[in-house]
């Protein structure tokens, strides 16, 4: 996680009696390998995560024949669906050109716990535009088998008006850059960053663009997400210990770590009904006019 998440991270929902709406109740949001949460996360670029402690984190890598380069993150919400940022998949010419890697810790090397999944369908929110409504859902070709290193996060309760209080502690994870140098490398290991939510009006004061109610911001108190973190989860831990997906990384400062531009996430609670609706649509006919048209490919 670098000096700033350019587009994606994960958040933990808290004492709001959050229930699992992910279809994986009892399994979601409870990693068998607990994350190490301490002051080491409050540093520029975050700290290395305990392998397997964020088992819903997934990485998107190009097909090996195209070089196998990592380009975005996502988050597993059940045994066949991954949520990410719309801008991560917007310009992909085909769903066959990349794979979803689950159970990973190292970015470049294959972990023994790693599973590679193919994508059956890509659905961007129909109203997504740049960083607005910046959310997409992927359907995997085959259901994944949960284990200690691969498990879904919980979804928050759907809400169109309820927000997390300012200064709520949340966590973001990713393989993004760890310095402000645009030419610098991505992290080779999964990193985590502790951060805090901001009041909507306070965040708007830093931004030139209009901050919609469907977006949330976090501050640079201890560090920042960075380029390569896009699409990743922002999570918060509930009173009963479960982790809930509060945000998907959509954007941040043009230079990682610049405190004048907050980190911005798509607020997942605003899109839970949309996610549930998508998961209920199993055929091409049922999906007609539901997703944003993809001019570059036809998803069968």
UniProtKB/TrEMBL annotation:
Annotated signal peptide: 1-23
One of the protein's GO biological processes: cell adhesion
Annotated Peptidase S1 domain residues: 43-280
The enzyme's E.C. designation: 3.4.21.84
Database matches in SMART domains: Tryp_SPc (SM00020)
Chain segments annotated as transmembrane: none
Keywords: Cell adhesion, Disulfide bond, EGF-like domain, Hemolymph clotting, Hydrolase, Lectin, Protease, Serine protease, Signal, Sushi
Gene Ontology MF terms: carbohydrate binding; serine-type endopeptidase activity
CDD domains with a match to the protein in the record: Tryp_SPc
UniProt KW Zinc keyword: no
UniProt key word Ion transport: no
InterPro entries found in the cross-reference section: Peptidase_S1_PA (IPR009003), Peptidase_S1_PA_chymotrypsin (IPR043504), Peptidase_S1A (IPR001314), Ser/Thr_Proteases_Immune/Dev (IPR051487), Trypsin_dom (IPR001254), TRYPSIN_HIS (IPR018114), TRYPSIN_SER (IPR033116)
Family: Belongs to the peptidase S1 family. CLIP subfamily.
Name of protein: limulus clotting factor C
Organism: Ixodes ricinus (Common tick)
């Amino acid at each position: 996680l670098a000096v700033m998440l350019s587009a994606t991270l994960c958040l933990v929902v808290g004492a709001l009696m959050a229930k699992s709406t992910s279809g994986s109740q009892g399994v979601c949001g409870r990693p068998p390998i607990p994350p190490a949460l301490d002051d080491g996360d409050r540093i520029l670029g975050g700290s290395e995560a305990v392998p397997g402690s964020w088992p819903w984190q997934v990485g998107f890598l190009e097909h090996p024949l195209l070089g196998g380069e990592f380009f975005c993150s996502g988050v597993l919400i059940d045994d066949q669906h991954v949520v990410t940022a719309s801008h991560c998949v917007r310009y992909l010419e085909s769903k066959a050109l990349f794979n979803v890697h689950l159970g990973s810790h190292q970015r470049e090397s294959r972990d023994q716990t790693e599973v590679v999944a193919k994508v059956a369908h890509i659905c961007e929110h129909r109203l997504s535009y740049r960083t607005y409504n910046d959310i997409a859902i992927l359907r995997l070709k085959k259901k994944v088998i949960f284990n200690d290193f691969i498990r879904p996060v919980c979804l928050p309760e759907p809400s169109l008006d309820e927000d997390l209080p300012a200064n709520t502690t949340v966590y973001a994870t990713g393989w993004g850059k760890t310095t402000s140098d645009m030419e610098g490398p991505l992290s080779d290991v999964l990193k985590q960053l502790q951060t805090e939510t901001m009041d909507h009006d306070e965040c708007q004061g830093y931004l030139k663009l209009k901050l919609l109610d469907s977006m949330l911001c976090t501050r640079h108190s201890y560090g920042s997400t960075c380029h390569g973190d896009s699409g990743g989860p922002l999570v918060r831990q509930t009173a009963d210990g479960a982790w809930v997906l509060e945000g998907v990384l959509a954007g941040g400062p043009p230079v990682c770590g610049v405190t004048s531009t907050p980190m911005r996430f798509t607020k997942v609670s605003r899109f839970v009904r949309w996610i549930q609706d998508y998961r209920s649509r199993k055929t091409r006919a049922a999906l007609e006019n539901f997703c944003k048209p993809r001019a570059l490919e036809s998803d069968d």
